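Hi all, long-time lurker, first post. I run a small reading group and we've been trying to get comfortable going from sequence to structure in the token notation. Rather than ask abstract questions, I figured I'd post a concrete chain and ask someone more experienced to write out its structure so we can walk through it together at our next meeting. Sequence below, copied exactly:
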Amino acid sequence: MSGLKRRGPRRPPATTEGTLPPEGSAAALGRGHALPLRQWPITLVLAVVLTGLLITWAGDFRLGLLTVGAAPLLGALLRLGLPDVGMLAVRSRFTDVALMFLFGSVIVVFTLVAQPDPWLRVPLLENIGRLIGHPVH
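-- Answer (accepted) --
Happy to help. Here is the structure in token form:
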């Protein structure tokens, strides 16, 4: 029986092995710079979001939300084109770019079709209020 291995539940290793950080997750600048500068791609994207929210708060909701929607599109372009984007890299390059492009596009399209006086007319969405139970005047 000395040649047989003990059968029973296997214990997981104490440390995770084989998990690598996402490609492109290295800081965009070296350690000699301040953290916001090292992480300039995500800092830039968040600054665009903040600018869009300030524009919305100031009273121009459409322009503000277009700016907010442009932020993930900018993030997708940065993630696609730069080798190191720091904390902007979360998963694989494909997944990050696809999700940021999808979210940014949805925000932009919803902003363009927003009532009143939409900038983009989509016949299916013209009477969306009636479909969800609200009268459209």
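A couple of things your group might point at:
Residues 35-120 form one domain.
The CA atoms of residues 113 and 125 lie 8 Å apart.
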